[in-house]
Amino acid sequence: MFGLSVERLTLFSLAALLLAATPGPVWLYLISRTLAQGRRAGYFSMLGVAAGLAVHMALAAFGLSVVLLAIPFAFDAIKLAGAAYLLWLAIATLRGGGLSFSPQPLPPVADRVLLRQAFVAALVNPKVAVFYLSLFPQFVDPAAGPVLAQSLVLGALQIAIAAAVDMSLVTVAGLLALWFARRPLW
Predict the structure, then answer these.
(1) pTM of whole model > 0.85?
(2) N or C: which end of the chain has fewer CB within 10 A?
(3) Cα(80)–Cα(146) distance, integer angstroms
(4) What one-character-per-residue DSSP string does 44-68 give?
(5) Three-state SS at 41
(6) How far apart are alpha carbons 68 and 71 in whole angstroms?
């Protein structure tokens, strides 16, 4: 398929699975959204994460992400932006009464807000940028066919694997939220 052997796709899939199964800021975001507001909020957030991953994939596929390696400040800026965004989310949660020791649910957040917040969280996640910049080229073989087509296939595969892991995470967090809701003493 587009110059990608079964072995190459299998190895890449394993690497993508390891990346997706590694806890990080996106996991914290998805779990907290789901626990606080239910599976629907978690699933919408998951879609935002997938959109952020798609931007990373497009940047890598079209070679624009090379700029991040060529200009060290750009990579540092993305890491700082990610930390600042997570800090902003924490402050907004504290100011909005998001932390509560009462069993009352948080007020619902609009779907578009969930999508936007998760999109930004994924977009500024340096773990994904490093994955695409360091590992992606190892699986693309210019002699085997169009590099862009190979990159797009690999990127789509990585997004599908990440979405499956994130969906599982949201589903489990949703079940935990229901369990806790039925047991107020917990």
Answers:
(1) no
(2) C
(3) 35
(4) HHHHHHHHHHHHHHHHHHTTTTHHH
(5) helix
(6) 5
Length of the chain: 186
Per DSSP, 23 falls in state: -
- Provide the pLDDT confidence category of residue 42 given band limits of 50, 70 and 90: very high
Structure tokens at 117: 């917040």
Q: What share of the chain is helix, strand, coil (3-state, %, to 5)?
A: 80, 0, 20
Helix axes 6-20, 147-182, angle to 10 degrees: 40
> How far is the C-alpha of 132 from the C-alpha of 135, rounded, in Å?
6
Q: Count CB neighbours of 39 within 10 A.
A: 19
Give per-residue pLDDT as tens, 98-145.
444 444 555 778 899 999 999 998 888 877 877 777 777 778 877 788
